[in-house]
Model the fold of this input.
Amino acid sequence: MIPRAHQALNDLIGRIGMRVMPELTNPYTLADTGLISLLMTMLGVELESGVARRMADAEDLKALFERAQAAPGAEARAAFIASRPASLTLTDTTAWTDQGLKLLIDLHSWAEEADQALNAEIWQFLSVHTDRHKFDL
Done:
């Protein structure tokens, strides 16, 4: 077990930056190593908080779907509200949240034409969702 996987990745990234990169002479290899380090940093962030962010997305989607019961597709959204991810792995929470986001696309398409208040709520959700998933590196 690696109890703090994100920290282990950060430690490896530090080692690459302090020990490996200074030894590189080829600019392409140096650039590739920098990109690999950046990707490792992003993976560390996902390992640490990816599931929590997806669960927060789902709770926000459920609240939004609760307020949109009059819109077409209510049965599918109600099924999502009642559902849970198959497990709390990043893969399963991503797949589950993606189901809710697909339902949101249909709801948003309808709301743009039929319900401006709901449309504004959806845009607010999308703004919060984007902020929640940005990488602060």
In short: The radius of gyration is 20 Å. The chain has a mean pLDDT of 93.
